[in-house]
Design a protein that fits this description.
Elements: E1 13-17, H1 22-33, E2 37-42, H2 45-56, E3 63-68, H3 74-87, E4 93-96, H4 111-131, H5 133-139, E5 146-151, H6 165-185, E6 190-197, H7 206-209, H8 212-219, H9 230-241, E7 252-255
Parallel strand pairs: 1-2, 1-4, 2-3, 4-5, 5-6, 6-7
Helix pairs in contact: 1-9, 3-4, 4-6
Family: Belongs to the short-chain dehydrogenases/reductases (SDR) family.
Keywords: NADP, Oxidoreductase
InterPro entries: NAD(P)-bd_dom_sf, Sc_DH/Rdtase_CS, SDR_fam, Sec_Metab_Biosynth_SDR
Length: about 270
């Protein structure tokens, strides 16, 4: 086997929610570059179409299609599932990336933030996966399972964040939902894994790391000393979705430069 065969996605169909920007956009490009036909969707129709056109204009072996959706409501999930069914009879890869965040100080975090965050980040993710199971099962073979990749966060594993209480809790729920779904769906020929990114430059994180100064400041809290790059996301997706990742399910893959296991100081505070 050639090393490149481990990450070749030629002939695969993928759906990336929230794929017009940020981590979704990074993943979509990686999948297209590996030969997949990628359906890119988010609430911003124009942005999805623009990203698809941009990727199709590059020297990649795959292709992209962009269209609108909203997975924060039951009606939106139903509409997205109907649209995907119009476009394909099989779905080899589902990347549940659509999400939102909210930051407010303790004592000021609004009640509606919890409902709004959980409805999209958790409820929408579950119901979209559930409704797309027939397409995922159709794509699965004994040697090549269908893949679900959920986007969690390092904040779902460790209590760090910028007053993002509802966001952090929602990502912790995503991580456990990943394990629960893996337990139920692996016997059906569908792997379910999650990535847990640390700081990556995106519209969601622009308030903190949208500048070089902000990135340098954030990097001080990352053991590897930098914020994430597009190739970090693309590489993880190609591993989880290619032949090399066909035996992995129920994993929460940390993409945080070591933040998930960083414990400053010593247990007994001795000088080392």
């Amino acid at each position: 086997m050639k090393p490149t065969d481990l990450f070749d996605l030629t002939g695969k169909v993928a759906l990336v929610t929230g794929g017009s920007s940020g981590i979704g956009r990074m993943a979509a490009e990686g999948l297209v570059a590996a030969g997949a036909r990628v359906l890119i969707t988010s609430r911003k129709v124009d942005a999805c179409e623009a990203v698809a056109a941009e990727l199709n204009g590059m020297d990649y072996t795959g292709s992209a299609e962009g269209f609108g959706s909203d997975v924060s409501t039951e009606e939106g999930v139903d509409a997205l599932v109907a649209e995907v069914n119009k476009r394909t009879e099989k779905l080899h890869i589902l990347m549940n990336n659509a999400g939102r965040t909210w930051g407010a100080a303790m004592g000021e975090h609004p009640y509606e933030a919890w409902d709004k965050l959980l409805r999209l980040n958790v409820t929408g993710m579950f119901h979209l996966t559930q409704q797309l199971l027939p397409l995922l099962k159709s794509a699965s073979t004994p040697d090549d399972p269908a893949r679900v990749v959920n986007v969690g966060s390092v904040m779902g594993d460790i209590p760090k964040g910028t007053r993002t209480y509802s966001y952090a809790v929602s990502k912790g729920a995503v991580h456990h939902m990943t394990r629960v779904l893996s337990n139920d769906l692996a016997p059906e020929g569908i792997t379910v894994n999650a990535i847990a990114p640390g700081p990556f430059v995106s519209k969601m994180t622009a308030f903190a790391i949208g500048t070089e100064e902000g990135q340098a400041k954030s990097a001080q809290g990352v053991p590897l000393g930098r914020v994430g790059r597009p190739e970090d996301i693309a590489g993880a997706l190609l591993y989880l979705c290619g032949k090399g990742g066909s035996y992995v399910s129920g994993a929460i893959l940390p993409l945080s430069g070591g933040m998930q296991s960083n414990a400053p100081g010593s247990l007994f505070n001795e000088d080392l």
